[in-house]
Predict the 3D structure of the following.
Amino acid sequence: MLGAGKGESIVLAWPGKRWGVVDCYAPSLNDHATNPTLQFLRGRGVTELEFLCLTHPHDDHFRGMSQLLDHLTVKHFWRFPTVSARDLRLLAKYLVADTERGDVAELMENANDFVRTMTIVNERRSRKQLGQMMVTGHQQLYPVPFDQSAHFQIWGFAPHGNQLGEYERALAASFDPDEKLRANPPSVSHNDVSVGLLVQFGKTRVVLGGDVERAAWTDICPQHKREHFFVDAVKVPHHGSDTGFIPGLWRVLAGRKKPIAVVAPYRRFRLPKRDALKHIGQHASKIMLTCEIDLASAPCPVRPPLKSRMFLRTRLKAKSPVPGGECGRCSLRFDSEGNCIGEEYAGPACECVIEN
C-alpha cells in the first residue's frame, strides 16, 4: 500500500507473476516518473496488470490512473457502478462543473484526468482490448473465467444497492433536463458507491475497504455470515475515519485472529482520527501507516526497526518506489495459510503505537 498524506494505491502480487492495482494517486500529471505506483511496478519489471480497479470517483483514488493505462497493458478494468452511460456522463460533468465553481486549477486537472481515464477505458473496451466490470454486492471478479475453487480469488462486497440508488438520484437531481448543473445541486457523496474487495489466497483473506462507510456496512454485514469477514489483514476504510466502520465490525474482522490494519493517512482532513485508531487498535495485531501523522491528534507513530523495514526489499530484490522520499509504502507478504511471513516499511511509512 502506497500513500503520501493524500491518496492511496494498493498493489497486489500473487503466484504466476501476476499483478493487480486498486486505486492510484500521483502528485503530477505532467511527469509519470513521479507516479509512485507506476514506478513501483516498473522497478519490478511489471508491464501487464490482470486488473486495475477504481473504487470511487474521488481524486485521491483516481489521480494519475491514466498514466497506468498509458504505460501498462491492463486486461480488466473494475470500477464503481453507474447504471447507464448517462450517469457516467453526468458524473464527469459534475466533477468538472463543481471544480469550475471553486476555480481551483488542481481540481480541474483532476476532473480532466478522470474523464481521460474513462475515455481510454471505453475506447479499449470497444476494441475488445480490455474487459470492464462494474462492481456491486457479492460478486466474484477474479479469476476470469470465474472459478470458485481457484486458489486465488477476488470478490466484491460493496457498494450496496441501497447506496447506489441514493447516489444516482442525487446525481440526476443535480442537473436540469438539458444536463446543465443546477445552481444549488444536492450533495453527491462519492463514498456511497465505493468498491470494497475481499481477497482470498488459500486460507488467507484480506479486506480492501476502499472508502466504504457506515451506511454501506450497515446494509452489507447482515447479508453475510460472520466468518465471511474473518480476515488476516485490512486496508482500513476511508483513511481511518470514524465513519469507516460500524459498532461490532472490527470484532467480526478479528473473529479468527487479530488482523494487521494498514492506513493511508489524509492529512488535509486530519485522518486517521485518534478515536478510530484506538478502537481499531483494540482488535488489530498492529497498525501500519503509509506516512507519519500529527502526534497531537493521534496515537504515536514510530519508525520500525531497520531489519523489519529491509526484510521484503532484500527478499524481493526491489528498489525503493518512493520518488523524492515523499510517498511511503507498507508491504505485507502472506503464505496461503493466513500467516504473515514478511513486512516492510519504506520511505516515511511507520507503525502506529497506541498510547494510553
